[in-house]
């Protein structure tokens, strides 16, 4: 099947992944994904089934325009294609830090996007996130992390905040944070550490099309991220706190 991509591929820039390469591997049966102002939308075929695709590219920050555009595409899928799976392709440097976005209420736009994803989920849409390049802070929370399950490619960059910035804000020396990052995944960037914490379900390598098929067929009706984080040794208290609250008993 012929894929709908621009006639002339543009350079994704230094340190950036051109979304077309992973898209071809993820959807060998073809896709109709288009890019406009670093926003991705369209559809693709997975095992003969059509899936909706939304996402971002070019390390773009999530501002009010892209947050609203993603929400519109998700609501459009719910209205026009009941039950169609939704794949979120993630490449963002995080929430856009501009006075204009703050004055317009970027937090409300991102909350709206999260509500749209939850609406889709409640209407029977499977929602899968994939970090194919970069995922930082708030932009990641309202995209990959809000999906039923989030996956990542081995070369992906995932972090809440760079250690130098974290050192400036927390007033903890960067050398100390670097040391902590060796044993505590909360401080450390990279998909492996988010895998340990349960935020990333799996790191995909090899046959990406097969990985996508398996992800879309897996039962993700229950949120097992805290359990996975405990089992993998990356989050040792989250599930214990959840159990204590649910059972109304104090922690040991």
TrEMBL record:
<dbReference type="GO" id="GO:0005975">
    <property type="term" value="P:carbohydrate metabolic process"/>
</dbReference>
<keyword id="KW-0808">Transferase</keyword>
<protein>
    <submittedName>
        <fullName>Malonyl-S-ACP:biotin-protein carboxyltransferase MADD</fullName>
    </submittedName>
</protein>
<dbReference type="InterPro" id="IPR009648">
    <property type="entry name" value="Malonate_gamma"/>
</dbReference>
<dbReference type="GO" id="GO:0016740">
    <property type="term" value="F:transferase activity"/>
</dbReference>
<dbReference type="Pfam" id="PF06833">
    <property type="entry name" value="MdcE"/>
</dbReference>
<dbReference type="InterPro" id="IPR029045">
    <property type="entry name" value="ClpP/crotonase-like_dom_sf"/>
</dbReference>
